[in-house]
Automatic annotation (TrEMBL):
Binding site for ATP: 94
UniProt xrefs under InterPro entries: Kinase-like_dom_sf, LRK10/LRL21-25-like, Prot_kinase_dom, Protein_kinase_ATP_BS, Ser/Thr_kinase_AS
Keyword Glycosyltransferase: no
Name of the protein in its database record: Protein kinase domain-containing protein
Protein kinase domain segment(s): 66-355
PROSITE patterns linked to this entry: PROTEIN_KINASE_ATP (PS00107), PROTEIN_KINASE_DOM (PS50011), PROTEIN_KINASE_ST (PS00108)
GO molecular function, one term: protein serine/threonine kinase activity
């Protein structure tokens, strides 16, 4: 009897092992589904805890966009569609795609922007989180993104070149929005993706910072933040985010991106484009820095009077300070605002922004770059 019982028990073990091997894919699939549901519920809980914006169901998103009829733009994140709320208010609906894991970028954007309220930061009116369907509902910006108005390849009769006074006001407005994110919120918000595409303009060309998918929220008292990997867009990303030993990652990383963007606003082309008239240098910041140092004409389009020339020179000098390689040599956004509002004659020309540039401070100025 004992032998028979032992034999029966052994057979049962064998059957169980064989069954588990045969059904392993099913078990694995079932576990994956359970993990997916768990990740979704955790993400949903995070969002519910973080924001007070209105939540829409996917059916509402389809209705307000008339089944996604009018596309305003697109990017790696997905698509943006024009929509209308029941009260007639126009909105921009950002429909996200290819979200990984629990949708970290979606959570970042909702968590960051729901904490803000500023004239130079785009307003989040609502969101949709329904299974894999996720969308953000923003206030509608009639003039779209800044890049349509500054790059020569994008400028048409519909998107005319902006005046130097308008470019100045836009650069000041963006600085005010960044200063609010860095100093005006309960927690400091680092954007990490400041570029022309992410600056939206209303009908009066008032700029608003958008796209907080790469943003990081940190305590205001922290001077630097830890990062697991680089964040940002090539051409605007601060060097300390990709090269070790330059300096800590901080609000100065946004200042660098801001400086690169302002440089493009002045030049009307991307900084890395291999097209510069009458020079062999292909990097516009170096080319324009040399012209300033030699007190040569800036060679920029659209300058018709002394006031335009002063605005252009001021924006160039400020942007060159902002893109200094060592973050300690860059001004904080508060100092950027002071420089924009001050006299161009009071601004010293910074060192050429290269890895070999000596560290420098503003000489005989009321504001310091070390902040």
């Amino acid at each position: 009897m004992k032998v028979a019982a032992a034999s029966g028990f052994g057979i049962a073990i064998v059957i169980l092992v064989v069954y588990s091997l045969r059904e392993k894919p099913l078990i694995r699939k079932h576990m994956a589904m359970m993990m997916g549901k768990r990740e979704h519920s955790v993400a949903e809980q995070k969002i519910e805890e973080l924001i007070s914006s209105r939540r829409y169901i996917y059916k509402d998103i389809k209705r307000m966009t008339n089944s996604f009829q009018e596309k305003l733009g697109q990017g790696g994140y997905g698509y943006v569609y024009k929509g209308k709320l029941r009260d007639g208010q126009l909105v921009a609906v950002k429909l996200l795609k290819n979200l990984k894991g629990d949708g970290e970028e979606f959570i970042n954007e909702v968590a960051s922007i729901s904490r803000t309220s500023h004239v130079n930061v785009v307003s989040l009116l609502g969101f949709c989180f329904e299974g894999s369907k996720r969308a953000l509902v923003y206030e509608f910006m009639a003039n779209g993104s800044l890049e349509k108005f500054i790059f020569k390849s994008n400028i048409s009769e519909a998107n005319h070149q902006l005046s130097w006074e308008t470019l100045y006001n836009i650069s000041l407005g963006i600085a005010q929005g960044l200063e609010y994110l860095h100093r005006g919120c309960n927690a400091r918000i680092l954007h990490f993706d400041i570029k022309p595409h992410n600056i939206l303009l209303d009908r009066n060309y008032c700029p608003k910072i958008s796209d907080f998918g790469l943003a990081k929220i940190c305590p205001r008292e922290e001077s630097t933040v830890s990062m697991l990997g680089a964040r940002g867009t090539a051409g605007y990303i601060a060097p300390e985010l990709v090269i070790r030993g330059i300096g800590g990652v901080s609000h100065k990383s946004d200042v660098y991106s801001y400086g690169m963007m302002v440089m493009e606003m002045v030049s009307g082309r991307k900084n890395t484009e291999v097209e510069v008239d009458h020079t062999s240098e292909i990097y516009f910041p170096h080319w324009i820095h040399r012209r300033l140092g030699l007190q040569e004409e800036l060679g920029l389009h659209g300058i018709t009077n002394g006031e335009d020339k002063g605005i252009a020179k001021k924006m160039i000098i400020i942007s060159l300070w902002c893109i200094q390689i060592d973050p300690r040599d860059r001004p904080a956004v508060t100092q950027v605002m002071e420089m924009l509002k001050g006299s161009v004659e009071a601004l010293p020309i910074p060192p050429k922004p290269t890895l070999s540039s000596p560290s420098s401070k503003f000489p005989n100025c009321s504001f310091s770059v070390l902040s």
